[in-house]
Design a protein that fits this description.
The protein has 10 helices and 10 strands. The chain is of the alpha/beta class. The strands form 2 sheets. An 8-stranded parallel beta barrel has the order 1-2-3-6-7-8-9-10, surrounded by 7 helices.
Length: 244
């Protein structure tokens, strides 16, 4: 976090989506890490294996956010569950600055995920490490995972369970996203970058998100799939820190 704002570069898609999000260039974590280290990101989100094999040369250039749970997209969304795959102790050993954890609010496995997270959150507090929650309303009990009501509930869950920052999906307008920010209160809200958009569409969304009182973005594909990732990252940085 820098002056209360957040701009994360995420590369957890290899586990969550498989190789489909990558081309011959950005399938290489070194390429994405190089972008993140040069473009003013306040954190780089990685799973343990990638962090162990690639992050060391970039330590001190961009903070590490270690993602502590994950899943594939092979299991149907209706039965969704993201299991622990790393520990806070792993994060400390790697020199991470924060940990990330996904919660699927409304999933049939919600109770298990809350129990898993409670242990992670307590251990993170013991180490004084910030906790970022990816909070998504998803599963067979969720009628509309993008509705303002569902996203606001997911944001509030993150606050109630002890998260410092919550990442949610954008609800489509500044006015609706203000309700999400209000639900989260002192848990800072950041928006997911989402699927690939044009630069103009993405930056327009970023302005709306920041106007709603959010703290920033976690962005992956829209930056490192871009033909000019440094240029788009710089434009996003200006939106977040108000220097357009």
């Amino acid at each position: 976090m820098k002056r209360g704002k957040v701009m994360l570069c995420a590369m957890d898609q290899g586990l969550e989506h498989g190789p489909r999000d990558f081309n011959e260039q950005n399938i290489d974590p070194d390429y994405v890490l190089e972008v993140a280290s040069k473009c003013g990101f306040t954190g780089m989100v990685l799973h343990k294996g990638v962090a162990l094999k690639y992050f060391e040369p970039y330590a001190g250039k961009v903070p590490l956010v270690l993602k502590l749970n994950g899943r594939t997209n092979i299991v149907p969304k209706e039965e969704i569950y993201s299991s622990p795959v790393a520990s806070v102790r792993d994060a400390v050993a790697m020199g991470a600055d924060a940990v990330g954890y996904t919660l699927y609010v409304g999933s049939p496995s919600e109770a298990q995920m809350f129990e898993d997270f409670a242990m992670i959150e307590q251990e993170a507090r013991d180490y004084g490490m910030p906790v970022i929650v990816w909070s998504y309303p998803r599963g067979k009990y969720v009628a509309d995972e993008k509705s303002v009501e569902s996203v606001s509930y997911a944001a509030r869950v993150a606050l109630e369970l002890g998260a410092d920052i919550v990442k949610v999906n954008y609800t489509g307008s500044t006015e609706s996203f203000k309700k999400v920010v209000a639900a989260a209160q002192k848990c800072r809200v950041i928006s997911a970058g989402g699927s690939k958009q044009t630069d103009a569409e993405f930056l327009a969304k970023a302005r709306e998100v920041m106007a709603a009182g959010a703290a920033g973005f976690a962005v992956g594909r829209n930056v490192w799939q871009n033909e000019d990732p440094s240029g788009l990252a710089e434009s996003l940085r200006k939106v977040i820190w108000g220097k357009e």
